[in-house]
Amino acid sequence: MVLRLELRQHVGAPCRPIVSVGEHVKKGQLIAEPTGLGANIHSSVYGTVKEITETAILIEADEEQPEEFVKIKDTESNLDAIIEAGVVGAGGAGFPAGIKFKGDIEGGYVIVNAAECEPILTHNMAYIEDHAEELVRGLKYLLEITKAAKGYIAIKPHHTKQLIALGKATKNEDNIEIKYLPNMYPAGDERVIVRELLGVELEPGQLPSVAKAIISNVETVKNVVAAIEERRPVITKDLTVAGRVKDEDAQTGRVFLNVPIGMPISYFIDQCGGILEPYGEIVLGGPFTGKHGELDSPVTKTLGGIIVSMPLIQEKRKLGIICCECGAQEARLHEIASLMGAEVVAEERCKRMTDDGRGRYRCSLPGMCPGQAETVLKLKGKGAEALLISNCED
Prior knowledge:
- By secondary structure, this protein is α/β, with parallel strands linked by helices.
- It contains nine helices and 21 strands.
- Strand 6 (47-52) and strand 7 (56-61) form a beta hairpin.
- Residues 83-225 form the NADH-ubiquinone oxidoreductase 51kDa subunit FMN-binding domain.
């Protein structure tokens, strides 16, 4: 099997390869380094480098795959270990964790985002159920690194098995608490978490650091523990496969833990019986913010879901689109419309979308969707006969 390790699996520029075609590499070996903002990339398998392109390193995996891996080099601090391991925001954001955890929040808060915000995805909950103590250890490492005073684990109250496991794991931890999030989308948005847990309303574009908080996804914390305790680089990913697959038990979601980064997503769809025809498209990520994928798309450090969608309706009416930060934005909605065979004649933003001062439009109150009557009338006036929307809780 040939694995494709993307050179850009993080916020920032693509990494620079440091291996050559024909070279035999080991699992855990450093194969690409950042040229600026970014994160190290390591081989997830033992194999031979077959090709290096502008965007990826292709490795043909050996038939034999020993469990052993190349450990990251010795570091002076736990923070340096996180940087060496190439840890990034595994929930989809991909921001280099070593930079985030350098933030000065002495006396503040480290919050583990256990919202598992996107519908269908369940791999974070599967991990917590069996590894709650490991998650708490990771949070304790982050409290030490950031000098924060309190650690919170933010989770929705209906995850009862996970809450029981976390309750046992935090029983003797005086500075770690479990906090409840509302059962809505997007409860995992950083500004929603800060608002619900700390009572601070961040403006569009403001970071949680304004509220003396750092927020980190469950799997990111898992990778922090692996980097510190095992000297293990980020070479695997947890993900959920769901949708139109032949295995009925997998249609509502099957979890795969610790899969090698770079593997084609077709492998995991095949593990669920293959695609059930007819289908619409393959979505990489969650239903709200996922993007279009192909069977040869690779697993990356930020991939959380592989969803085979139902057939898309074919729409001959002229469409208007309403863009929202919490869901799909212009490019994705145009892509969906194209797959539907529809013509987009007009587009508007949700009225809560405001410029954050840097040219990016952000929701002013994520999770509190306003009425869209005024926006709908504008689109109708521009010739729209039907709507394609991406609103949050509505």
